[in-house]
Design goal:
CATH topology: Protein Binding, DinI Protein, Chain A
Structural class: mainly alpha
Strand order of the largest sheet: 1-2
Number of domains: 1
Helix content: over 70%
Strand content: under 5%
Number of helices: 7
Radius of gyration: 26 Å
Shape: rod-shaped
CATH architecture: 2-Layer Sandwich
CATH superfamily: Skp domain
Number of strands: 2
CATH class: Alpha Beta
Length: 208
């Protein structure tokens, strides 16, 4: 007869082979900056502005920026993720320790099962169930709290990167910047790399 906690530890291991922060981050795809409907509206306005400008005023300067690409490659993103991992590392260690405690108790009970009395066996089963529930509670709270903190930090990051795009556009004399959602953009107006370089330079300057 084999006694198990409410939580299957082997299954837990396979599900949690990477940090919940990493899985959440990958699933979000670094978070989209704009609602797709809003993007379509902005693109439409950009096209109207571009083609409605009189021939004598064709100096309108328009640029296209992929905000998602900037977020994926910006050093600020790595800094945020590293800070979150450090913040939640103690709780991750607690969860791992609780999992190890359950595994060790399972092994001990399985080894001594043949010589256990009925009362001792029931007590062991109850302890395993209690530990399993505690483990699930800790894991659930960790996931909820880490998701909340990540949303908070990436909201700040979004605003920061957007401000950098706006500052770059103003400094370079752009009249209009269009974000993600453009079906095609030539290298002439795609300034993503230029903006990213500016973002990296500003970050390095303030980090020294």
């Amino acid at each position: 007869m084999r006694i198990q906690a409410t939580t299957d530890i082997s299954e837990t291991k396979s599900k949690d082979s990477s940090s919940p922060l990493d899985k959440r981050f990958k699933g979000m795809r670094y978070m989209s900056f704009m609602n797709k409907q809003l993007v379509r509206a902005v693109v439409s306005v950009a096209l109207v502005v571009a083609f409605a400008v009189p021939a004598s005023a064709q100096e309108t300067k328009i640029g296209v920026v992929s905000l998602q690409a900037i977020v994926e490659r910006a050093p600020q993103t790595k800094a945020v993720m590293d800070a979150l991992r450090e913040e939640f590392a103690p709780r991750e260690r607690e969860i791992v320790a609780k999992q190890k405690e359950i595994e060790e108790l399972q092994a001990k009970v399985q080894k001594d099962l043949a010589v256990m009395g009925e009362t001792e066996r029931r007590n062991a089963e109850k302890k395993l169930r209690d530990l399993g529930r505690e483990f699930e509670r800790m894991r659930s709270e960790y996931q909820e709290d880490s998701n909340l903190r990540q949303n908070e930090e990436f909201s700040v990051l979004q605003r920061s990167v957007l401000k950098e795009v706006q500052d770059y556009a103003q400094a370079q004399g752009y009249d209009l910047i269009v974000g993600d959602g453009v079906l095609y953009v030539s290298t002439t107006v795609n300034i993503t790399e230029d903006v990213l370089n500016a973002v990296i330079a500003n970050y390095e300057a303030t980090s020294q």
